[in-house]
């Protein structure tokens, strides 16, 4: 299938779910928004859930890619400070992601398996990026010695509430303050142990 059709399908999926929530979105309406026939859409995906997951993966990949480009632009070895700065930026971008916000507002149960049972493709994209950056920062000496995948998954699990629980957190303090708290949490988690 052409990339332009894929892009139109993903954009139509986002627009439909943001407008109506997952329960009221339909494959027919998404096909119409994308300017394609239903048969073409069904060749692309067999269900609305699959389309939503694909759109989320695309959103996460775009965010991770944009931020990874920023990290490597300087051409220097990645440090813990770089990882913390980029994680904060990722949290900020994901907190503003319209599709993720719509799912949290209207259909949070769709995300529950990825919070309690398994990592999804979207999460794996972030874990892989963090894992590579953590390896570099360990060589540089600013991240403690531990399995980089364990650190990456631990960081993801620790930071996820700063995105999915935004309303709860913002009832206590402004969003910017919570982003700072998330950065502080990650920095302390990754820091090498001080000699006794």
Per-chain topology:
Blueprint: H1 3-24, H2 27-34, H3 38-44, H4 48-73, H5 80-95, H6 98-106, H7 112-116, H8 121-140, H9 148-159, H10 161-164, H11 166-170, H12 175-190
Describe this structure in words.
The protein is mostly helical and 196 residues long. It is 77% helix and 0% strand. It is built from 12 helices and no strands. The chain has helices at residues 3-24, 27-34, 38-44, 48-73, 80-95, 98-106, 112-116, 121-140, 148-159, 161-164, 166-170, 175-190. Helix 1 (3-24) packs across helix 4 and helix 4 (48-73) packs parallel to helix 8. It is elongated. The mean pLDDT is 88.
In short:
This protein has 196 residues and is mostly helical. The protein has twelve helices and no strands. Helix content is 77%, strand content 0%.
Shape: elongated
**How many DSSP H or I helices?**
12
Give the % helix. over 70%
The proportion of strand residues reads under 5%
How large is the radius of gyration?
19 Å
* Classification by helices and strands: mainly alpha
How is the quaternary structure best described?
single chain
> What is the chain-wise order of helices and strands?
HHHHHHHHHHHH
Give average pLDDT, whole number.
88
Distance between the termini: 60 Å
Low-pLDDT regions: none
């Amino acid at each position: 299938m052409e990339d332009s059709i894929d892009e139109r399908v993903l954009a139509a999926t986002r627009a439909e779910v943001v407008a109506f929530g997952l329960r009221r979105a339909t494959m027919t309406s998404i096909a119409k928004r994308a300017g394609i026939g239903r048969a073409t859409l069904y060749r692309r995906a067999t269900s609305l859930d699959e389309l939503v997951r694909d759109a989320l993966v695309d959103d996460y990949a775009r965010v991770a890619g944009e931020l990874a480009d920023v990290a490597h632009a300087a051409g220097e070895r990645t440090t813990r400070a770089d990882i913390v700065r980029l994680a904060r930026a990722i949290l900020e971008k994901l907190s503003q992601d319209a599709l993720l916000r719509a799912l949290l507002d209207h259909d949070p149960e769709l995300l529950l398996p990825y919070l309690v049972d398994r990592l999804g493709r979207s999460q794996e994209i972030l874990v892989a990026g963090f894992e590579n950056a953590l390896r570099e920062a360990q060589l540089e000496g600013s991240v403690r010695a531990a399995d980089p995948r364990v650190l990456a998954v631990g960081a993801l699990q620790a930071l996820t509430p700063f995105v999915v629980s935004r309303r709860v957190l913002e009832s206590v303090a402004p969003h910017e303050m919570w982003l700072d708290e998330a950065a502080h949490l990650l920095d302390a988690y990754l820091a090498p142990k001080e000699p006794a």
